[in-house]
Design a protein that fits this description.
By secondary structure, the chain is an alpha/beta fold. The chain folds into three domains: 119 residues, Glucose Oxidase, domain 1 (3-Layer(bba) Sandwich); 109 residues, PtsI, HPr-binding domain (Enzyme I, Chain A, domain 2, Orthogonal Bundle), CATH 1.10.274; 267 residues, Phosphoenolpyruvate-binding domains (TIM Barrel, Alpha-Beta Barrel). It is 43% helix and 14% strand. It has 18 helices and 16 strands. The strands form two sheets. The protein has an eight-stranded mixed beta sheet with strand order 1-8-7-3-4-5-6-2. The protein has an eight-stranded parallel β-barrel with strand order 9-10-11-12-13-14-15-16, surrounded by six helices. Strand 4, helix 6 and strand 5 form a beta-alpha-beta unit. Helix 1 crosses helix 5 and helix 16 packs across helix 18. The longest helix is centred in the first third of the chain and has 28 residues. The N terminus is likely disordered.
Length: 552
């Protein structure tokens, strides 16, 4: 990837268009160009009609919901089978979760009750989804984000009931740049090989669109105001680093951009070896995974094993034996694995936890805080991790999410070490933890900085709010200063400090993070070659100079 200057903190969503184009927030690196195609809109709900046969309308409701769930499961199977890129498993998990939402018996019962009250199938589905959406939106946080997912499911179900085409991705028969107001997880997860890049009016750096685009290696720009006003077929170029969209490029120019990007990707794919600066300073390049299926060659281990995927959508917690099997599968295939204990709670609802709704889930019982009410969940997980490590002889590290105080870190470390786990750490996701990094390191062996949540809590900006995307840009000086404080505490203690948030996979920020003193970067597998190359282009002193500039 061409060497880029350190960008200024994120461009607000209402930034003026660049000359001859638009400017948004680049969230997935790379360049692409081609004709744009806009997402098909939702179906238009016609006026309500009298119901002559309630039984027939009830059957339509059932068939519409079943068709939506079946379509999502078909997409999930296709994502599992996808061989290109490394985002297929994340996509499949999202699609499976959406299918379960469409299958929700309470939702179906409410829609059927609407029919019994005199509504036709389409209006009964619309009303049921709207009531569920309002209930979720009122809870905020992760549940509020799921409310937007319900909009997409509603549009699909209503389209099915009306017998009109489902809204979603265009199929022009040629490669194109996908433009939309926003993308649902189902649409983002189902992208085909004909999509060259993504541009949305809404969204932020930690949205589903951004995360899955990075996982697929697709250039992406979000928070790009006015982009949907362009006509289908307009040729545009997309820069996923700078966020710049050029309008009116010629076919020849588009072909040249695609050729240059293809050659650059081929060059990066040919690189190998550990992460190093130009003068040999090591910065480990690790992977973020949700299961063994996400493992890819070319990295130096796993920096973030998200174990919550094993727990999602379960009415009962996975058993000790089931957890041992899942951890063992990963440990046998990776040299070093950092396991994050269950990162869940009210903001990532798990039915078996039985946690009550909260007024502000982002500030409630989540991450390690679940241990305050259900300590047996963590105890079983630590037992399973320890057993899998013993069985495989793996270099297994373990870390707890959402740690705030040294006392929490000390208690977690005591319990993990009592089970024979040798390397114990915590995640830094709230400013209180970053400001006490030196105290935390008196209790644990390493720190891992989750820049996604650390941005949210540092700037008091909901990571899903489309109008605050610029505040969540990881190049913000305040955030980088907190990262630097953690790295300095690690240097003083002689202990490693890594970054495992989305910022770690950004080739522009990688030299900055290395210059701040970060010892490892953990990212989606597709990001490793570009980050390796970015580090190799700069000496450690050049990285430090970039860090000084970025935090000024």
């Amino acid at each position: 990837m061409p060497d880029e200057a350190v960008p200024a903190p994120g461009t607000p969503a209402d930034a003026p268009a660049a000359p001859g184009g638009f400017t948004g927030l680049g969230v997935s690196p790379g360049r692409a160009a081609g004709p744009l195609m806009r997402m098909a809109g939702p179906p238009v709900l016609p006026p309500a009609r009298p119901v002559a046969d309630a039984g027939a309308e009830l059957a339509v409701v059932g068939k519409a919901l079943e068709a939506v769930a079946a379509d999502l499961r078909r997409r999930s199977a296709a994502a599992h089978d996808r061989t290109s890129g490394s985002g297929g498993d994340d996509a499949a998990e999202i699609l499976d979760a959406l299918a379960m939402m469409a299958d929700d018996p309470m939702l179906r019962e409410e829609a059927e009750q609407g029919v019994r009250d005199g509504l036709d199938a389409a209006h009964a589905l619309d009303a049921a989804f709207n009531r569920h959406r309002e209930a979720l939106a009122a809870l905020g946080g992760y549940l509020g984000e799921r409310a937007a997912d319900l909009d997409d499911l509603k549009h699909r179900a209503v389209a099915g009931a009306l017998g009109v085409p489902m809204p979603g991705l265009p199929a022009p028969g040629h490669p194109y740049v996908l433009v939309a107001e926003d993308l649902s997880p189902a649409d983002t997860a189902g992208l085909g090989a004909d999509v060259l890049a993504l541009v949305t009016e809404k969204g932020g750096p930690t949205s589903h669109t951004a995360i899955l685009a990075r996982g697929r290696g697709l250039p992406a720009v979000v928070a790009c105001a006015g982009i949907t006003e362009l006509a289908d077929g307009t040729y545009i170029s997309v820069n996923g680093v700078s966020g710049e969209i050029a309008v009116g490029v010629t076919e020849a120019e588009a072909a040249r951009i695609l050729d240059e990007e293809s050659r650059e990707r081929a060059r990066l794919a040919a690189t190998s070896g550990p992460g190093r600066t130009a003068d040999g300073h090591p910065v480990k390049l690790l992977l973020n995974i949700g299961s063994a299926a996400d493992l890819r060659p070319g990295a130096e281990g796993v920096g973030l094993f998200r174990t919550e995927f094993l727990f999602l959508d379960r009415k009962q917690a996975p058993s000790f034996e089931e957890q041992v099997a899942a951890y063992t599968e990963v440990f046998r295939q990776a040299e070093q694995v950092v396991v994050r204990t269950l990162d869940a709670g009210t903001d990532k609802p798990l039915p078996f936890l039985g946690l009550p709704p909260e007024h502000n889930p982002a500030l409630g019982i989540r991450g390690l805080r679940v241990d305050r009410v259900l300590p047996e969940v963590l105890d079983t997980q630590l037992d399973a991790i320890a057993e899998a490590a013993r069985a495989t002889g793996a270099d297994a590290w373990v870390m707890a999410p959402m740690v705030t105080t040294p006392a929490e870190a000390a208690d977690f470390a005591r319990r993990a070490r009592a089970r024979g786990i040798g390397r114990v750490g915590v995640m830094v996701e709230v400013p209180a933890a970053a400001l006490q990094a030196d105290r935390l390191l008196e209790e644990v062996d390493f720190l891992s900085i989750g820049t996604n949540d650390l941005s949210q809590y540092t700037f008091a900006a909901d990571r899903q709010h489309p109008g605050l995307a610029d505040l969540l840009d990881p190049s913000q000086p305040a955030l980088l200063r907190l990262v630097g404080a953690c790295a300095e505490a690690g240097r003083a203690a002689g202990k490693p400090v890594g970054v495992c948030g989305e910022a770690a996979g950004d080739p522009v920020l990688a030299p900055v993070l290395a210059g701040l003193g970060v010892t490892s970067l953990s990212m989606a597998p597709v990001c490793v070659p570009a980050v390796r190359d970015a580090l190799a282009r700069h000496t450690l002193e050049e990285c430090r100079e970039r860090a000084r500039t970025a935090t000024a």
